[in-house]
Request: fold
Amino acid sequence: MHLRIPVFICLVLLIAAFLPVTTSGQTSCEAIANLTLTNATITSATSVATGAYKPPAAPGLPAPSRELPAFCRVAGIARPTSDSEIHFEVWLPASGWNGKFEQVGNGGFAGSIPFSGMAVPLLQGYATAATDDGHTNGPNQAWAIGHPEKVNDFGYRAVHETAVQAKAIVRAFYGKGASRNYFVGCSEGGREGLTEAQRYPKDFHGIVAGAPAIRWDALELRGAYDALTLMAAPASYIPRAKLPVLQNAAIAACDGMAGVKEGYIENPELCHFDPVVAQCKGDDAPDCLTAAQVASAQRIYGPMKNPQTGELIEPGFSPGVEAFPANWAIWLTGSSAPQLGAGKLLAVFFFRDVVYQDPKWDIHSLDVARDIKFADDKYGAALNSIDPNLRAFKATGGKVIQYHGWGDAAIPPQGSVNYFKSVQKAMGNTKSFYRLFMVPTMSHCAGGPGATMFGNAGGWESGEDDADHDVVLALDRWVEKGVAPDRIIASAFVDNNPSKGVAMTHPLCPYPQMARYKGSGDVKDAANFVCGAAPKQKK
Reply:
């Protein structure tokens, strides 16, 4: 016996030397491929060496600037119905796991896995996952034709199924489940986050929901409405060269809401801007708008209402960031009148392919009252995330941070305010579990002329590694320690490059509070502002 013990130990060590290293788990990466899942199969599980994979850039999601750490890359397909094919991936840090899981959301109609978005939480030590929402996009949205279950997957089921499967994979790889589960998304991803809170309150401990497309069908109807506004006549179109005229006029009318001139609009909700102030006094000129262009701008800023009932369908867009390169020229006006912006394209996809499933559908046939009723009746229950009852989510201890840029030209920011107010009306004060932060000058999900960067939101790399500057870290601190975010510091960087230094900082305040100037100091320094009650609205 005395001789057998060291021989046995030597054999164990020899065998172990040739086994895959499983730094903190009970299962090797490659062995995860054999894991049995409910309603899903794993198609691959591969160990990825440090720096061996660089995710491609995607719209709104730049490729990460740092190389990714070593991780286990797991791909799978979930099939909760016979017509479902939900592709997902789960990335598991090979070492340095922070013990937590962060799932990231999609944009637009989804249709692909947002790999660049997954890179950010992986770099921060999270296990992470994402999905294509159950379909692959082509030059249109024909995947929806004849496939109502795929629409349901896109609307609510794919994110939930991915969360279920990802948690099982995390448990198998590390030998234990994540201590905290988070969801972070913007745009469609923001809607996905609210959908999770409304439908599956136990999936996540915390949710960051940016610029959510809360009422999907109304948003797409808004895109068609604005397109028809700009195409009503040749004179109705607002060329890109005139967007600075609108922006400058809006800022001149509404700057100073924070108690100091900042060069931008702190809170457009408090100032009524009428573009008629920019109308030409005589003939058309580069520094003014024609009467037809003013009328178009008024409709874009104004609410879209049901012409039969007067009911609000979708709010209008806020003034002040019209000329920012990734704003009106991308989403509304485009580069020419026939082409217009992305809002028109998404509207055509939705009503032609998803709602009416008729290749002959034409945007000029739009009837606001008829089309919103038809879309609501057909897919409103699957696609709209408007339920204000978050009691079940609150009861689990869950927390939500919602944010929206006041300059968003893709999804009207007032929609976030309206949803927040609906939750407060249904549940009372929500500050213990749900807070909304409106971001001055921010375009769709990120970017803008002011301080619009606040860490890991919408898949962006953090410029500051602390909870006062990073919305996901703020959420984590709220969930872990019960410290609610009373403000988040947003930053702007020189040439939009964090390595070149900070150009300005500004506090984001929980709605309905807003930043107020203390009375002295640099207006580009957040230290010279406090969060307080908004002033009375200008008439």
